[in-house]
Amino acid sequence: GAGVSQSPSNKVTEKGKDVELRCDPISGHTALYWYRQSLGQGLEFLIYFQGNSAPDKSGLPSDRFSAERTGGSVSTLTIQRTQQEDSAVYLCASSVNQGKPQHFGDGTRLSIL
Amino acid sequence: KQEVTQIPAALSVPEGENLVLNCSFTDSAIYNLQWFRQDPGKGLTSLLLIQSSQREQTSGRLNASLDKSSGRSTLYIAASQPGDSATYLCAVRLNNNDMRFGAGTRLTVKP
Which residue of A has its CA nearest to B103? Predict the structure, then answer.
């Protein structure tokens, strides 16, 4: 489709495992964003890419979190040594350029047992 | 630190009513403000985006206003319909590209 695609849609894993979440932005969108939505809380900004560069990584909650973007397109968010508090919905968004409306994917629901 | 507050947290109205959702933010140094709709289990759908230099934006039955100096925005929904039932989120974009979201208003429109 023409929208932002995220995979997997659901992920259940054991505490301590590493997970990789994928985001396919809308074709041609240079800006890409990752957010986390924890149960009962608002969205938390994690990281923003302009092209392949991430000017600001300060939103990542710990050094277990990392993200990369290659070819100005697909991005992966990696969480190492997962903890139960990492359980949340991870949302990805893209926009034509920074400052333009963001278009969101349906998210990955991550559950850490 | 920028904080975004949405009032009310939940709202239930009969079909056909006009309604207003409120969003306030503590720091007026914003790049833009965006209203989103989120349906259960889904991502966010952008409704309206207001640049910091603008006062309002309109799309169909929706009208969003921005008063940057007072740190407030409102989303006006005219002639509400059951299909408008969703959670509405406002978000401010800071000048460093960080975004801050409110916790949302859960709207139920009863037939």
Answer: A42
Which of A93-109 are b and which e, b meaning 16 or more Cβ less than 10 Å from the residue's Cβ? Answer: bbbeebeeebbbbbbbb
| B7 Cα to chain A: minimum distance (Å) | 14
Q: With the C-alpha atoms ordered A22, A26, A30, A31, is the resulting torsion angle positive or negative?
A: negative
Distance CA B30, CA B53 (A): 10
Q: Which residue has the tokens 């998210």?
A: A107
User: How many A×B Cβ pairs under 8 Å?
Assistant: 58
Chain B CB within 8 Å of residue A70 CB:
no
Is residue B21 very low, low, confident or very high in pLDDT (cuts 50, 70, 90)? very high
B79-92 residue pLDDT tens: 999 999 999 999 99
